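Q: Got a minute? One more chain.
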Amino acid sequence: MLDWHLCPAVESSPDKVSGAWVFRGTRVPVKALFENLEGGATVDEFLEWFPGVAREQVIAVLEFAEQSLVA
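A: Always. Here it is, folded:
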């Protein structure tokens, strides 16, 4: 299980999306990124569909998840 507390691109608050991990400064759940990618979407499509999310945030989340696979 990833410790999302260690990823600066995301945040969790009981006041936002029932405490789900979201991209910092948005209400877009991190889970939405992975669901869309699993469904065949590209990062560019995801960014188009969720304009509040920055490309840098997506890259940070993907790199964070990738690092967990290496450890």
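A: The chain has a mean pLDDT of 95.
Q: Perfect, thanks.
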